[in-house]
């Protein structure tokens, strides 16, 4: 099985420029810049069926194509790399940046070329200090070698790549909030229209891609769309860094074909549940995705299948709930997190999430009433898509919605027994 | 202001970052982090001087400063301990780790030890869920924590 994204990973340090080049690194950049037009490059990525790995799964080629690069269109164009990996339970981008920083940088340069961007920012979360050190070193090497800066590889394409270390807030993962943060403001979201590809950073066209998405790009350019589609077991192209955390034998992350079943990831790669712990449920793509149960384990992990099963593919880094952990306590932990991370800009989110968290805390502590379940249910509607300014609150409602359905009895027991049965 | 609160070295670092943005004020998050790196936290006086340096109002700068996790507007200890309290670390028992730290250091979350050695703060998911529970001290990550590991780690920070 081919594992292009992690092929250069070694225990210890990440590969430097020389090592990266000797394993074929920056060959894709040469090819893209010298032999391919922007249109050809975008067509190739469209054809590869690469979809955004940040969580939303938007086709990357289509996103690139939405940037107007025709003569006379607004300039400069900006390229932003979302390296603000903060979805609880998710650690794939950290591995990619620590393991092979040049792979990401090559992907950025090719992506920026595709949309004719002159300036690129890596928006890195503060806590990823090791990734930050390795990226800085790799960026310096890439500038030195002429892969970044003026007239890259003797072409008329120039790119200035800058590293922005965020001062830290979950909401920065929202695209428009990220843009505000990058411009030195509070990270509150903006209206979605106009699109950032028309008016983003400083009112100029801005393209935003996730780290893992961009790491795929050099391989697509090197080996073609058909090869890339062939890596996958479903209609979405490529491999994916799947992760598992919780009480499994071997928590970790693995590069596997897109469309690998949940069971294979959980049992073969994560080694199944730890002795003495049974499987109860999992969140397939981070803390803001709805729970899936035992009956879903044979489903392939791809965007559409997980969606049809009532959840979201998200970051495909799964969090496992075992049978000795209290689901109500877990929900309280999740909603407390979302309440704290609300930026406070819109009222339903700012006021509703703390209410949800307090209600869950009461139930967990044996102070809950039957009305509390109705209050929680009501919030899953009041904070749903369309009622709030951005996706944070609806994301917070996803695990709650499914928990109220799947773990109803556990909630009820807390209320009737006036205590947490797990404590 | 009687004497400048930001050293020349600190200002120089800030001005290097300014060139990456259209307006100097937009480099304020870099600038605030530089002030934290030099002085541990951002006092009102330093905030005032920084606002002037960047050409924005104090109110604007403080609005940004108070929004983010890693810009401290109050004094912190020589080392800041950030304990992850997100979902996987919760499943894997971060509460025991946090209680152990609190007892061992004699401080609750948000407090600084009497000798000024440590400040204890909560933090959201550190992206080390495969090795939970996790925490950071200053800019270093520690994983697979248990009470004994914590003893050994704390020894390294004076």
Please describe the structure with a list of short key phrases separated by commas or semicolons.
heterodimer; A: 423 residues; alpha/beta; Rossmann fold; Ubiquitin-like (UB roll); globular; B: alpha+beta; Arc Repressor Mutant, subunit A; Glutaredoxin; 7 helices; 11% strand
Helices and strands in order, then pairings?
The complex is a heterodimer of chains A (423) and B (158).
Chain A: H1 17-22, H2 27-35, H3 38-48, H4 60-65, E1 78-83, H5 92-99, H6 101-114, E2 119-124, H7 129-144, E3 160-165, H8 175-182, E4 206-210, H9 211-223, H10 225-230, E5 239-245, E6 252-257, H11 262-269, E7 279-283, H12 303-308, E8 317-322, H13 327-341, H14 347-364, H15 370-382, H16 392-406, H17 408-417
Parallel strand pairs in A: 1-2, 1-4, 2-3, 5-8
Antiparallel strand pairs in A: 5-6, 7-8
Helix pairs in contact in A: 2-6, 2-9, 5-6, 5-7, 6-9, 13-14, 13-16, 14-15, 15-16
Chain B: H1 8-18, H2 28-39, H3 44-54, H4 58-65, E1 79-84, H5 87-91, H6 94-105, E2 118-123, E3 135-137, E4 140-142, H7 147-155
Parallel strand pairs in B: 1-2
Antiparallel strand pairs in B: 1-3, 3-4
Helix pairs in contact in B: 1-2, 2-3, 3-4
Radius of gyration of chain B: 18 Å
CATH fold call of the largest domain in chain A: Rossmann fold
Rounded Rg of chain A: 22 Å
Of all chain pairs, the largest interface belongs to: A-B, 52 and 40 residues
Q: Give the strand tally of chain B.
A: 4
How many discrete domains of chain B?
A: 2
Strand content of chain A: 5-15%
Helical fraction of chain B: 40-55%
CATH architecture of the largest domain in chain A: 3-Layer(aba) Sandwich
Strand content of chain B: 5-15%
CATH 2nd-level architecture of the largest domain in chain B: 3-Layer(aba) Sandwich
What is the CATH homology-level superfamily of the largest domain in chain A? NADH-ubiquinone oxidoreductase 51kDa subunit
Span between N and C termini of chain A? 45 Å
What overall form of chain A do the CA principal axes indicate? Answer: globular
- The global form of chain B is elongated
CATH class of the largest domain in chain B: Alpha Beta
Low-pLDDT runs of 5+ residues of chain B are none
Strand order in the sheet with the most strands of chain B: 2-1-3-4
Main sheet makeup of chain A: 4 strands, parallel
């Amino acid at each position: 099985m081919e594992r292009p994204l992690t092929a250069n990973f070694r225990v210890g340090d990440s590969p430097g420029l020389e090592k990266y080049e000797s394993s074929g690194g920056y060959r894709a950049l040469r090819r893209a810049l010298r032999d391919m037009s922007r249109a050809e490059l975008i067509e190739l990525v469209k054809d590869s069926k690469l979809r955004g790995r940040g969580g939303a799964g938007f086709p990357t080629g289509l996103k690139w194509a939405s940037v107007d690069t025709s003569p006379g269109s607004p300039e400069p164009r900006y390229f932003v790399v979302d390296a603000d990996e903060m979805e609880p339970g998710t650690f794939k981008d950290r591995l990619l940046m620590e393991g092979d920083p040049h792979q990401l940088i090559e992907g950025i340069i090719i992506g920026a070329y595709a949309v004719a961007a002159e300036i690129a920012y890596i928006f890195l979360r503060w806590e990823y200090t090791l990734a930050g050190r390795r990226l800085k070193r790799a960026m310096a090497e890439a500038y030195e070698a002429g892969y970044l800066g003026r007239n890259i590889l003797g072409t008329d394409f120039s790119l200035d790549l800058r590293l922005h270390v965020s001062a830290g807030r979950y909401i920065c993962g929202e695209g428009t909030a990220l843009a505000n943060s990058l411009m030195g403001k509070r990270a509150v979201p903006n209206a979605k229209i106009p699109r950032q590809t028309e008016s983003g950073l400083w009112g100029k066209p801005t393209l935003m891609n996730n780290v893992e998405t961009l790491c795929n790009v050099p391989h697509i350019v090197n080996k073609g769309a058909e090869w890339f589609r062939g890596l996958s077991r479903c209609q979405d192209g490529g491999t994916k860094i799947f992760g598992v955390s919780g009480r499994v034998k071997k928590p970790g992350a693995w590069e596997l074909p897109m469309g690998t079943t949940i069971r294979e990831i959980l049992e073969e790669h994560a080694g199944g549940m730890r002795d003495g712990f049974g499987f109860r449920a999992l969140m397939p793509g981070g803390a803001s995705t709805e729970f899936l149960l035992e009956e879903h384990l044979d489903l392939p992990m791809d965007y559409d299948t997980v969606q049809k099963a009532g959840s979201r593919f998200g970051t495909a880094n799964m969090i496992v709930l075992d049978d000795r952990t209290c689901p109500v306590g877990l929900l309280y932990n999740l909603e407390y997190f979302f309440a704290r991370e609300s930026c406070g800009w819109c009222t339903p989110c700012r006021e509703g999430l703390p209410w949800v968290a307090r209600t869950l805390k009461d139930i967990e502590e044996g102070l809950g009433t039957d009305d509390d379940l109705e209050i929680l249910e009501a919030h899953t509607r009041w904070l749903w898509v369309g009622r709030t300014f951005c996706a944070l609150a609806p994301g917070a409602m996803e695990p709650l919605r499914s928990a109220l359905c799947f773990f109803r009895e556990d909630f009820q027991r807390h209320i009737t027994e006036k205590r947490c049965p797990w404590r | 202001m009687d004497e400048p609160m930001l050293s020349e070295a600190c200002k120089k670092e800030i001005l290097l970052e300014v060139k990456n943005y259209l307006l100097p004020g937009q480099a304020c998050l870099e600038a605030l982090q530089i002030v934290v790196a030099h002085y541990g936290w951002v006092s009102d006086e330093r905030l005032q001087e920084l606002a002037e340096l960047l050409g924005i109002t104090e109110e604007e700068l403080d609005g940004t400063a108070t929004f983010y996790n890693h810009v401290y507007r109050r004094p912190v200890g020589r080392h800041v301990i950030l304990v992850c309290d997100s979902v996987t670390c919760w499943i894997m028992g971060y509460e025991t780790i946090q209680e152990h730290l609190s007892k061992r250091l004699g401080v609750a979350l948000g407090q600084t030890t009497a000798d000024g050695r440590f400040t204890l703060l909560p933090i959201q998911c550190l992206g080390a869920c495969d090795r939970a529970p996790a925490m950071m001290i200053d800019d270093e990550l520690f994983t697979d924590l248990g009470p004994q590991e914590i003893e050994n780690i704390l020894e390294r920070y004076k």
